[in-house]
């Protein structure tokens, strides 16, 4: 950690130095500190937040701290997130668009003097192993020591990044402020600093490869390497440079014979993505290891195959619902050196949340800082942990990480999975007939709305193509076209096979037909065999390739009838599905919808006759 007030700077990159000077002149911090990525610096950030009263050390978890954010600053703010492309058409119908000149004018007014009374930290970071040909470098400027500490866990920070950047390397400027300047002698008073909701902006300028964020100190709004760089800006770079930046986990699966394959998978939120990334198989002799839990960057190797890296170095996971049963590897990852945000605090210095697998141990302090008791209250209270409460943990803490998860060359992807939460219609698993059919599958992914979503009619499907709806940095019709184009860049035999999975199929009585979690290894084993060309395990159906009845060994409690229902092709349901896509989903993309996808829809409709 280097405070530079006239002393030598840690870089000779003139464009970077000029940008930092411009930001400092605009935001007027009390000091400018260049981050070096050392353990000492990380400890200093947590010491600063502890002294400010915003961090609570956890006695039961060495090196771990609890933060409570402001109730207005608890999640990504999608309605304040913008793709400020030069034209509305370039941003597309699924993004919030503002004219970039207008937005910069508005935000510059907010940035003027916004770091007064604070330190401005300069964070050089690498998304992906430092020096990897698939990695990208960003530099985040922030006035939040909480952000610095989280970026230490989530990315590779420091001097080594500046060495690789050199004197003229490409970097993505990421400007962030909590938006709460301090007057002389003023402090935050132990409260989480942020701006009111109407002053929060998370802005992306895709043509300039620039990110500006103001007013939020939380998660993807403030850790700008995550969704902002790794997906919204990187998706534009990937389109222009011929690769893929995707909202996908990466896992390594090894069969009993010792042969390994790599799977990338995209799921909308609340569909078991992290649990699949860290799955503990129930199938004897099979092994699943984690390469990444959230984002995959895939580029073609010299052999014509797609190779993926996990650009992140840590997990920013949702805590509620994470338990020893649902995800033992995640629980093992957070035993030490973890930052918790908006979970509940126990009296003995541990954390607790709903769905952790055991009752709350006595009186807690909830995520708002108030006393909370699980039972025996006359007044009902909200949850002890915010539903979007998070843990930030190093990937190296996770016992299921593959030994080669940081290979700078990436890992060769054999299969791509899409999935959503569908109680009917979509079978447990089916395989695309071709690459374009697989792109069609990705383009129609969705989850059925439950009573929890008050703004939409229960039973309708909320489409989230490729699980990228909030994260694609340009027109989604062009994004579909880019995926089709990827399939034309190499031989069909070298492309990953594409599958659609659905762990959430229910019986007519509303019972889940499939137990999920570790039992999903049984589906992965079938997918592995399909990639390996094992004969006799599948049949052609109108919707794609489906397992034969005995190809997947059913878990305990799943009957032969259940398996038949799980793998059945619901012709009437699919006809209704296609009618919905044709009437409500595909028209969104107007003339930018690739003709290949319209053709896939028409062909499927014909096969279902």
Radius of gyration: 24 Å
User: From the coordinates shown, what is the CATH architecture of the largest domain?
Assistant: Alpha-Beta Complex
Oligomer: single chain
Low-confidence stretches: 451-456
Describe the structure.
The protein has 609 residues and is α+β, with helices and mostly antiparallel strands. The protein folds into two domains: 218 residues, 3-Layer(aba) Sandwich (Phosphoenolpyruvate Carboxykinase, domain 1), CATH 3.40.449; 273 residues, Phosphoenolpyruvate Carboxykinase, domain 3. It contains 16 helices and 32 strands. Strands 1, 2, 5, 6, 7, 8, 9, 10 and 11 form a nine-stranded mixed beta sheet that branches. A six-stranded mixed beta sheet has the order 15-13-14-26-30-27, sandwiched between helices. It has a five-stranded mixed beta sheet with strand order 3-4-19-24-18. The longest helix has 17 residues. It starts with a strand and ends with a helix.
């Amino acid at each position: 950690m280097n405070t530079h007030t006239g002393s030598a700077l840690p870089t000779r990159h003139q464009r970077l130095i000029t940008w930092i000077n411009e930001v400092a002149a605009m935001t007027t911090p009390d000091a400018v500190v260049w981050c070096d990525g050392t353990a000492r610096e990380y400890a200093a950030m947590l010491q600063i937040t502890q002294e400010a009263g915003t961090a609570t050390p956890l006695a039961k978890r060495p090196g771990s701290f609890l933060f409570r954010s402001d109730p207005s600053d608890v999640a990504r703010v999608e309605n304040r997130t913008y793709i400020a492309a030069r034209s509305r058409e370039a941003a597309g119908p699924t993004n919030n668009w503002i004219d970039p000149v207008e937005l910069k004018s508005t935000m510059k007014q907010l940035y003027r003097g916004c770091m007064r009374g604070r330190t401005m930290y300069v964070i050089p970071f690498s998304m992906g192993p430092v020096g990897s040909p698939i990695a990208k470098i960003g530099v985040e400027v922030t006035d939040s020591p909480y952000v610095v500490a989280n970026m230490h866990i989530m990315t590779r920070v420091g001097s080594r990044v500046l060495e690789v950047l050199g004197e003229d390397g490409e970097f993505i400027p990421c400007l962030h402020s909590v938006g709460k300047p301090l007057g002389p002698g003023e402090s935050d008073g132990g409260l989480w600093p942020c701006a009111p909701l109407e002053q929060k902006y998370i802005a992306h300028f895709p043509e300039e490869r620039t990110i500006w964020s103001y007013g939020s100190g939380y998660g993807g709004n403030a850790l700008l390497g995550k969704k902002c760089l790794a997906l919204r800006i990187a998706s534009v770079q990937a389109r222009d440079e011929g690769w893929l930046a995707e909202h996908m986990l990466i896992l390594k699966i090894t069969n009993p014979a010792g042969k390994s394959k790599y799977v990338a998978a995209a799921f909308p939120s609340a569909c078991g993505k992290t649990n699949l990334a860290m799955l503990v198989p129930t199938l004897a002799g099979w092994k699943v290891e984690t390469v990444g839990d959230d984002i995959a960057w895939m580029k073609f190797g010299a052999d014509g195959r797609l190779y993926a890296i996990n650009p992140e170095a840590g997990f920013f996971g949702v805590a509620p619902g994470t338990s020893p049963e649902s995800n033992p590897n995640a629980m093992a990852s957070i035993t030490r050196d973890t930052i918790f945000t908006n979970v509940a605090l126990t009296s003995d210095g541990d954390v607790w949340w709903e769905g952790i697998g055991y009752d709350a141990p006595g009186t807690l302090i909830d995520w708002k800082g108030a006393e909370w008791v699980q039972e025996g209250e006359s007044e009902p209270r909200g949850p002890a942990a915010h539903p979007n409460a998070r843990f930030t943990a190093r990937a190296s803490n996770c016992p299921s990480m593959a030994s080669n998860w940081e290979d700078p060359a990436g890992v060769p992807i054999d299969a791509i999975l899409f999935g959503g939460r569908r109680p009917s219609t979509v079978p447990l698993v089916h395989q695309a007939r071709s690459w374009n059919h697989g792109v069609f599958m990705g383009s129609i992914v969705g989850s059925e709305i439950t009573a929890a979503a008050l703004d939409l009619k229960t039973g309708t499907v909320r489409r989230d193509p490729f699980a990228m709806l909030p994260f694609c940095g340009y027109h989604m019709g062009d994004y579909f076209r880019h995926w089709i184009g990827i399939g034309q860049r190499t031989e069909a035999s070298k492309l990953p096979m594409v599958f659609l999975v659905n762990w959430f199929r229910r019986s007519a009585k509303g019972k889940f037909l499939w137990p999920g979690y570790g039992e999903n290894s049984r589906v992965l084993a079938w997918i592995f065999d399909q990639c390996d060309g094992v004969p006799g395990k599948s049949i052609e159906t109108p919707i794609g390739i489906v397992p034969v009845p005995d190809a997947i060994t059913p878990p305990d409690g799943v009957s032969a009838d259940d398996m038949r229902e799980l793998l059945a092709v619901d012709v009437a349901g699919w006809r209704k599905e296609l009618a919905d896509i044709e009437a409500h989903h595909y028209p969104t993309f107007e003339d930018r919808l690739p003709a290949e996808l319209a053709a896939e829809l028409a062909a499927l409709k014909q096969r279902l006759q």
